[in-house]
Amino acid sequence: MKYSIDKKESYTVFTLQEGKLNSLVSPELKTELILMGNEGVRNIILDLSQVEFVDSSGLSAILVGHRICTNQGGLLTICELHDNVQRLIKISQLDNVLKITPTVQEAKDFTMMHELEREMTASGGESKADAKGDE
């Protein structure tokens, strides 16, 4: 499996450099995502700009990443989806579960906002839910 990783303080961009995310690639992707989680990576941006085909094992690998990030209070964001990949995610109704952004930059911005909100909540600031409860 070909990929690149760009680690930043608040997130890691994982760019899959494969045309297909199928049963040949998915086990390796799952392993990499698990290793990243074990290293303490909480927020992963999965850049799928080069992926033109995803099968059910590919969706499973993405969901593993989602679970790892969620369990650590973080976020898995997928971005740069080809139309047929986006269509499969929508048909599978995973667009209601996964955070999807059009570009890597939007994924970075969304992740940074998520981190700021998490830090504010952890430091005693009001979360959106707290603010609604006060109305």
What features would you describe in this structure?
The protein has 135 residues and is of the alpha/beta class. It has helices at 26-38, 56-71, 83-91, 104-122, 128-133; strands spanning 3-7, 12-16, 20-21, 43-47, 53-54, 75-79, 99-101. The protein has 5 helices and 7 strands, in the order βββαββαβαβαα. Strand 1 (3-7) and strand 2 form a beta hairpin. Helix 1 runs parallel beside helix 2 (56-71).
Strand runs, count: 7
CATH topology: Transcription Regulator spoIIAA
Return the domain count: 1
**What's the rounded overall pLDDT mean?**
92
Q: What top-tier CATH class fits best?
A: Alpha Beta
First-last Cα distance: 51 Å
Helix content: 40-55%
Computed structural class: alpha/beta
Indicate the low-confidence ranges by residue numbers.
127-135
**CATH H level: which superfamily?**
STAS domain
Please give the order of strands in the largest beta sheet. 1-2-4-6-7
Shape: globular
What is the fold's blueprint, element by element?
Elements: E1 3-7, E2 12-16, E3 20-21, H1 26-38, E4 43-47, E5 53-54, H2 56-71, E6 75-79, H3 83-91, E7 99-101, H4 104-122, H5 128-133
Parallel strand pairs: 2-4, 3-5, 4-6, 6-7
Antiparallel strand pairs: 1-2
Helix pairs in contact: 1-2
Jot down its keywords:
135 residues; alpha/beta; Transcription Regulator spoIIAA; 5-stranded mixed β-sheet; two-stranded parallel sheet; 20% strand; disordered C terminus
How would you sum up this structure in a few lines?
This protein is an alpha/beta fold. It contains five helices and seven strands, in the order βββαββαβαβαα. It has one domain: STAS domain (Transcription Regulator spoIIAA), CATH 3.30.750.24.
